[in-house]
């Protein structure tokens, strides 16, 4: 098997299999054991979302904590610019990212810094469309296929490829899962990956004080918004103008070209802002 989304698309078509079916077959493990692992991950994600809305928890640095609660309250009180799925998914993404910042239990998806994007979108889709946990596990498997290709073809590490490799990859994984759950074709699933990555190309990794808090937790919110946009583009039968595998390759090239100051060293970008350096 090649680490290429095109391989997955062609093989699904040739063997008349869905992406989760092919992924389980390629894993060569027991099907129910695989789904049990996915269900366990889903439960951790769900718990993280609940814990992240605690208004009183704060990170040790004091940089984050309690913000997701404020976001959700503003949504409930009709004070935000957006409503509906986007707002609720954004609030969940922030909650899960804050759960990570306060040393709560999360699922790296694909990393801790980007842990809120995929679960927030999955849980909000379940809330709106009534998907079962088993269907969400299928979504996690689809997301895993995408993450595996990106990790092996490029990177999911901020230190290696910038935040485009972390929150960008998470957005691509979430967009793919969303398109699959909403009945999109395999091609549409991967078109969503291309759109999601194109929209964050060049995003740097610039953690304030070297901590995975600012701007990281807030990029989880923008990441889930980007995933929804990418999913909607693909589901509207708009093809990604660049083959998704080539977009992944471009992300790697851009990541390799980023200077060290913009790859998780805390020496550039937001981390170098004067007010942040004084803290």
Outline:
This protein is mainly α and 279 residues long. It has 13 helices and no strands.
Description:
This protein has helices at residues 5-15, 19-27, 31-51, 67-76, 84-101, 117-129, 133-153, 158-161, 167-181, 186-198, 216-235, 244-257, 274-277. The longest helix is centred in the first third of the chain and has 21 residues, at 31-51. Helix 9 runs antiparallel to helix 10. It is 62% helix and 0% strand. The model has no long low-confidence stretch (mean pLDDT 97). It has 279 residues and is an all-alpha fold. The chain contains 13 helices and no strands. The chain has a single domain, classed as 2-methylcitrate dehydratase PrpD (Orthogonal Bundle).
* Total beta strand runs: 0
The H/E string reads HHHHHHHHHHHHH
Count of runs of 4 or more consecutive helical residues: 13
The CATH first-level class comes to Mainly Alpha
Query: What structural class do helix, strand and pairing data support?
Result: mainly alpha
**Which word captures the global form?**
globular
CATH topology assignment:
2-methylcitrate dehydratase PrpD
- CATH architect. name: Orthogonal Bundle
């Amino acid at each position: 098997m090649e680490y290429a989304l095109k391989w997955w698309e062609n093989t699904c078509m040739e063997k008349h299999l869905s992406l989760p079916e092919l992924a389980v077959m390629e894993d060569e493990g027991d099907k129910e054991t695989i789904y049990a692992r996915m269900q366990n991950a889903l439960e951790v994600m769900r718990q993280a979302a609940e814990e992240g809305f605690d208004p009183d928890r704060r990170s040790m640095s004091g940089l984050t904590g309690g913000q997701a609660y404020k976001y959700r309250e503003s949504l409930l009180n009709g004070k935000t610019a957006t409503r509906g799925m986007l707002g609720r998914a954004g609030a969940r993404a922030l909650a899960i990212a804050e759960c990570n910042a306060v040393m709560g239990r999360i699922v790296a998806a694909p990393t801790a810094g980007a842990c809120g994007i995929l679960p927030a979108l999955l849980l909000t889709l379940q809330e709106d469309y009534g998907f079962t946990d088993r269907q969400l596990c299928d979504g996690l498997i689809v997301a895993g296929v995408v993450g595996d290709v990106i990790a092996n073809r490029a990177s999911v590490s901020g230190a290696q490829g910038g935040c485009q490799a972390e929150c960008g990859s998470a957005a691509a994984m979430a967009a793919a899962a969303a398109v699959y759950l909403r009945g999109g074709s395999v091609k549409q699933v991967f078109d969503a990956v291309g759109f999601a990555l194109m929209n964050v190309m060049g995003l740097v990794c610039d953690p304030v004080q070297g901590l995975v808090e600012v701007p990281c937790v807030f990029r989880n919110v923008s990441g889930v918004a980007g995933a929804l946009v990418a999913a909607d583009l693909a589901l509207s039968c708009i093809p990604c103008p660049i083959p998704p595998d080539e977009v992944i390759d471009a992300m790697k090239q851009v990541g390799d070209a980023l200077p060290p100051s913009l790859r998780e060293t805390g020496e550039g970008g937001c981390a170098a802002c004067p007010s942040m350096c004084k803290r």
